[in-house]
């Protein structure tokens, strides 16, 4: 899908042909659309990098001044997926005439820009547009992090009541998501620092200040994700210890019951031997055997209780 947008007096509108100052949004393009981008002056490698789901964040610059800003953005796959939240690459190509965004999958960040709800957005201000995308990405990381924390709190309550494997595996899914977030935010930070060293946004003081805000927001998102990841890791370790302790308690209880129930068997087996035994001719011999079994069992139960084994 290839859609061209441009700011007009009525706001952000779709146009049919690429003109100076427009924004070309490309989502999972077909071969014809890729060829169209190449004809407009977008390097083939830049398109390939942005469509590779495993590509890492970085910035590259061609001799003619064409700039590629490749960043990892958060992406929600679905609560039932093995990894509900992951990251995908988003390529921003800045040419002398227009700006191009390229992504393999439809995502919330680009949809928000396409909706026209972003105030003060101008497709003609290519550097400012890029910085707004970077800022929106950092904010989206924080938004998704809040959603993850809510789910984790719910799962924590469920695991406290009943330690089921299904709830533990659910926590593991969100722990994976946080690992993806941490890796992406670190790579994005390195990419932004490189842009800052290149002084690409130094022409306008507002752009330079906005870049500082973007870096600060990204660092805040990274710190928050790392804190949540550490808390979740500690929580997983604690729940693993709880499950192990619960299993030990169950095994200890069952072992105690087994020992107690084996005492009457031992006593009756002793009195069941075909040899002369005390009180074997007494009319209450059977009652004596039962009393002896109960007394010994009671003593063992008392010992187990004092040692907190039962």
Helical content, roughly?
A: 55-70%
Global geometry: rod-shaped
CATH class of the largest domain: Alpha Beta
How far is the first residue's CA from the last residue's CA? 68 Å
In total, the number of strands is 7
Strand order of the largest sheet: 2-1-3-7-6-5-4
Order of helices and strands: EEEHHEEEEHHHHH
Low-pLDDT runs:
none
Largest sheet, if any?
7 strands, mixed
Structural class: alpha+beta
How many domain modules? 2
The CATH architecture category of the largest domain equals 2-Layer Sandwich
**What do we call the CATH topology of the largest domain?**
Beta Polymerase, domain 2
At the fourth level of CATH, the homologous superfamily of the largest domain is CorA soluble domain-like
Residue-averaged pLDDT:
83
Beta-strand fraction estimate? 5-15%
For the CA atoms, what is the radius of gyration?
A: 34 Å
| Count, helices | 7
GO molecular function: metal ion transmembrane transporter activity
Subcellular location: Membrane
Pfam families: CorA
Protein name: Magnesium transporter protein
């Amino acid at each position: 899908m290839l859609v061209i947008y441009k700011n007009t007096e009525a706001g952000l509108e779709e146009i049919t042909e690429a003109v100076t100052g427009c924004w070309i949004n490309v989502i999972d393009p077909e071969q014809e659309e890729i060829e169209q981008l190449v004809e407009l002056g977008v390097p083939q490698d830049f398109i390939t990098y942005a469509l590779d789901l495993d590509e890492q964040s970085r910035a590259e610059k061609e001799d003619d001044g064409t700039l590629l800003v490749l960043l990892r953005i958060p992406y929600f796959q679905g609560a039932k997926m093995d990894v509900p939240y992951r990251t995908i690459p988003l390529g921003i190509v800045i040419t002398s005439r227009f700006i191009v965004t390229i992504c393999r999958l439809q995502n919330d960040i680009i949809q928000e820009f396409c909706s026209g709800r972003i105030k003060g957005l101008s497709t003609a201000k290519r550097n400012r547009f890029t910085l707004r995308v970077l800022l929106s990405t950092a904010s989206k990381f924080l938004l998704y992090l809040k959603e993850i924390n809510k789910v984790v709190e719910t799962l924590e309550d469920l695991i406290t009541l009943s330690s089921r494997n299904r709830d533990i595996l659910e926590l593991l899914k969100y722990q994976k998501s946080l690992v993806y977030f941490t890796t992406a935010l670190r790579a994005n930070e390195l990419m932004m620092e490189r842009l800052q060293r290149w002084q690409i946004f130094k022409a306008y003081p507002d752009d330079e200040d906005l870049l500082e805000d973007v870096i600060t927001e990204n660092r805040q998102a990274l710190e928050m994700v790392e804190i949540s990841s550490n808390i979740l890791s500690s929580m997983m370790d604690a729940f693993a210890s709880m499950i192990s302790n619960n299993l030990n308690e169950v095994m200890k209880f069952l072992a105690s019951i087994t020992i107690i129930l084996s005492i009457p068997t031992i006593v009756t087996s002793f009195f069941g031997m075909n040899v002369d035994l005390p009180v074997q001719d007494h009319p209450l011999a059977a009652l004596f055997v039962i009393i002896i079994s109960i007394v010994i069992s009671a003593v063992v139960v008392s010992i187990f209780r004092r040692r907190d084994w039962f």
